[in-house]
Amino acid sequence: MNEAARSQLPVATPNGEVHIPLPRRVGVVEKAPEPASDATVFLPRTPSQEESERRLRKAAWVRRSAWGAPALLTLALGLIGITRPGLWADEFATWGNTTVSWSEFWLQLKGTDASIGPYYFVIRLWTTVFGDSDLSLRLPSLLAMAGTAAVIGLIGNRLGTYKIGLLAGLTFAIIPITTRFGQEARPYALATLFAAIATLLLIRMLGGFTLGIAMMYAAAVAGVGLMHLVAMLLLAAHGLAVLVLKRKLLWRWIPSAFAGVLPLIPIILIGRRQQGTQIGWIPFTDLHGIEAYGLEFFGGALIGGAIMALGVAAVSRERGAIVGITIGVVPVGILLALGSVAHLWQQRYVLYTVVGWALLVGLLLAKRGRIAAVATMAALAVLALPGQVEVRKPAFRYQDTKVVVALIERDLQPGDGIVYGLKDRGPGALNRDVIAHYLPADRRPTDLLVDRPMRTDGWMVSSEHQDLAARFKGTQRIWVLRLGEYANPLDELDGNKKEVLEEGYDVADSWWTTGYTVALLTRKDTV
């Protein structure tokens, strides 16, 4: 012990007292301030930490690109030429339901189209905010297709790597049929979006069942059926996938699927009563229909053949491959079989099966090298080009309504009238919508025969006056608009229109456009 320390110890004096020396004050020691409770201490990062963070940011960006890039590409392709073709008959059914009051809207659904009433309800809300232009009517479908591409990317991420999602999503984006129905004001694109979401949730359920996933799955299934009841055949594909991949999950999957079906029961019951008027016109499936599916479904024979060939090559026992092939094949096979005995088969009713084929292509290409994957995607894009051009043509939509309007508007004169074929080949009852949608009231021919306008008192079809001669009196020129192509524009006109018009008028001119016959009649010389 040194001398300084020894001097601080207690010392006993001779008389027995203890002397305790006071410590020497050598300076003032101040207590160091405590750091504030919310203070953040920044320590320098090591090069390895910075590299790790860069890798994490890159991985997150790559995973986002797997769903973001397909969504943006789908949106971009869909916006190109979205308003070039005019609305066709089915789209006019959508538009017409946005033009009536809410009370009349509910009456319309009681009489017709209740099975897709939820879609009409969504579009009514949409057009209340964004208007009823062709772009506005079609934009929900395009957004749904872009959303589907994003969900396919997420499915791929869930199945393994971002490559699966990116390649599958891009495949979906470039398929011409994706653009075709992304540019149509009908419910099929929204049904496809819900089908993709339900598939993503099914894959999560296969990975690990939770009540939350089951509830979300049921909601997605309900969304599929609310947009289009026939699309509920998706459940057959999902059920088969569960049976093959994880049979023990069936007892949990079935209640989840049934919970999604429950909200649809009222629509199913009402739809059965309307079945004859809504789908009774659909022909039974035959060999020609099956051949047409292979040649036309994807938007072209070449791109369709390539997609299916790649999809078949991807089939394996893997989870993603089983889910993809069941979605791509099972609903089509069932509907083709049902279509041979019932009026059900339409290619657009199984539009959502494209999700399965795109997923299969992504799974296959992700296993190949980068060069092979890029080369294959480039080849698919080239094969899709003719189809991308075709789906934007009016002929691909069955009717070129804008040309009809242009013909009438070009030669229209004050005092002109117009007569419609109500029972033409196809939904001739919607002929009035062509003029009502595209021509302002002060620049359209007078509807000579209408008594009760369309979509009134629960009746979609208008009623017409039976005394034609009285209604035609004083009208020098009458336009005739027919759905379908007729050598004689007056042939097969409903009622006695043909006889009365032939007696008092001559056909001055007539035109055929895609899906329509337009004629101009002038009054005969009475001298």
From TrEMBL:
It is found in: Cell membrane. It is a multi-pass membrane protein. Keywords: Cell membrane, Glycosyltransferase, Membrane, Transferase, Transmembrane, Transmembrane helix. Its main location: membrane. InterPro entries: LipidA_mod_glycosyltrf_83, RgtA/B/C-like. GO terms for biological process: lipopolysaccharide biosynthetic process; response to iron(III) ion. Residues 120-267 form the Glycosyltransferase RgtA/B/C/D-like domain. One of its GO terms (molecular function) is pentosyltransferase activity. The chain crosses the membrane at residues 65-82, 139-157, 164-182, 188-206, 218-244, 250-271, 292-315, 321-342, 349-365, 371-389. It comes from the Bacteria. It comes from Asanoa ishikariensis. This is Mannosyltransferase.
